[in-house]
């Protein structure tokens, strides 16, 4: 088989955690929990690797509004500029959130509706208190990047060619993970009915950005998914 025909698919399930789902999550995403049946349907497919990610923050994480001073410490409303801890001249503006997905708390658990017995791997992210980390692959700084999860390396060592992405939230961690996956050289498919986002407008922009980066938006019952059912090593 020619290498350009190589196909080895992985499923990435982004941050399907209690704190991101209503009604009790600290930052419940509208209808976040409703994607569980789609996620479970995808977990039944013969992906080479089924990976779930978890936002996994220490209590002093920089993305928590509670760790900043007034007046710029309002969850959802406040944005702060943070500098690369390894290079003070690289700066980014980032949104502040309620405390969420704190390590070893129920809010950080994957929602009970998802069939976790079918997961091959769980990757934790966002442990470095100094940087935001929406993407499962690493933080957004580049000069240099501060922390990487090692997932890209794991996928590449195993010969994975295609990443199928679902989860929460479309306009934040899904988008950043998709953009990084495309940047790492994977073919990326976003499962439209397997994602939910924070802001409606943000989701539209997110899909535009993801598609511009080369990702394709598909439905979980679309013809593109058939290839996953029949691939062979
Ligand atoms: Zn977070």
Automatic annotation (TrEMBL):
Q: Which Pfam families match?
A: Isochorismatase (PF00857)
Ranges for domain Isochorismatase-like come to 10-220
Task: Report keywords, A-Z.
Answer: Hydrolase, Metal-binding, Pyridine nucleotide biosynthesis
Metal-binding as a keyword of this entry, yes or no, is yes
* Protein's pathway: Cofactor biosynthesis; nicotinate biosynthesis; nicotinate from nicotinamide: step 1/1
Q: Which InterPro entries does the record match to this protein?
A: Isochorismatase-like_dom, Isochorismatase-like_sf, Isochorismatase_Nicotinamidase
Q: Name one GO biological process term.
A: pyridine nucleotide biosynthetic process
Organism domain of life? Eukaryota
What's the Enzyme Commission number for this chain?
A: 3.5.1.19
Keyword Hydrolase carried by entry: yes
As one GO molecular function, the record gives:
metal ion binding
Family statement drawn from the similarity comment of this UniProt entry: Belongs to the isochorismatase family.
The protein depicted here goes by the name nicotinamidase
Source species: Viridothelium virens (Speckled blister lichen)
